[in-house]
């Protein structure tokens, strides 16, 4: 998989955005770190998939509730309501990106150590249920 220079920068910005949001939550919902993380995450996502595809991703009718919650949560963080903003933003994130969780789980199961752990007999059904992977029915 070849990435353009803009996409490489986007991956870096998105990674730093996730890191700053995590750090902001760990430091008791520090509004500055959360706001910086949100800006970096959205900017990085735009650079990775492009401005037009980003707009169409967030503007789809099926994703409207997730989009409103995600950006509403970002606005709440900007308006100094970080705890409520992160909760609303997390709900919107799940609505927007929840379809990708089975793909991410499949990728993680192919990694050496993580994949072995996720495929353990007692871990596999729990993770499948959390992610929403459908089990094949045995007839």
From TrEMBL:
Its membrane topology: Multi-pass membrane protein
Gene Ontology CC terms, in alphabetical order: COPII-coated ER to Golgi transport vesicle; cytosol; endoplasmic reticulum; Golgi cis cisterna; Golgi membrane
Keyword Nucleus: no
Entry-linked InterPro entries: Got1 (IPR045176), Vesicle_transpt_Got1/SFT2 (IPR007305)
Record has Secreted as a keyword: no
GO biological process: endoplasmic reticulum to Golgi vesicle-mediated transport; retrograde transport, endosome to Golgi
Compartments, record wording: Golgi apparatus membrane
Transmembrane portions of the chain: 9-29, 35-56, 68-94, 100-120
Alphabetic keyword roster: Golgi apparatus, Membrane, Transmembrane, Transmembrane helix
Family: Belongs to the GOT1 family.
Protein name: Uncharacterized protein
Organism: Tulasnella calospora MUT 4182
């Amino acid at each position: 998989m070849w990435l353009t220079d803009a996409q490489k920068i986007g991956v870096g910005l998105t990674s730093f955005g996730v890191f700053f949001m995590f750090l902001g939550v760990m430091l008791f919902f520090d509004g500055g770190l959360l706001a910086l993380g949100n800006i970096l995450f959205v900017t990085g996502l735009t650079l990775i998939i492009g401005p037009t595809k980003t707009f169409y991703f967030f503007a789809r009718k099926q994703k409207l509730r997730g989009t409103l919650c995600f950006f509403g949560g970002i606005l709440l963080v900007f308006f100094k309501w970080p705890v409520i903003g992160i909760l609303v933003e997390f709900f919107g994130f799940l609505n927007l990106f929840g379809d990708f969780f089975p793909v991410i789980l499949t990728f993680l199961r192919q990694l050496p150590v993580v994949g072995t752990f996720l495929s353990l007999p007692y871990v596999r059904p729990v993770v499948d249920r959390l992610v929403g992977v459908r089990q094949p029915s045995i007839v």
